[in-house]
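Q: Mind making up any chain with structure tokens?
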Amino acid sequence: AGGNKKPAAGIVVHGYHCEAHNWDEVVWGDVANQRLGRLPQAALLAWETRHELVSFICGTGASRNASGMLEADATVAMLFERLPILSDFDSFRDVDLGELNRLLRRTVVTDTVSTNTEQEVRFALVRLQQACVQRVMLVSSP
């Protein structure tokens, strides 16, 4: 039983404190140097696993941005606001951004409850297990 079931994949984008001085660079990256931040890297992985992707989780609720938006919500807002300019990164040259947008809108989950890495990982594992995910990719940074 279950032999015909399509393998499922999940992506977890590790949260990053909104008040960190280099938040934008860590989360988005540096186009001039073609260095992908967490979101573009995760979006590229989403595209590469688009036929198996069932969940794209962004955390956490540990911090708020200047306008009071929780970390996970701010991260997702940035993802969709900047999705049209992902093509500024060479890695996205052959990516259909319209299809990627539809994929992400279908799979994005925000974790606004967790307030530390341990809670974030536990939240993600529960969600991914519920979705019968067999392969997980965690996107963080050094």
User: Anything to note?
Assistant: Residues 74 and 137 are 21 Å apart (CA to CA). The first strand starts at residue 9 and ends at 13.
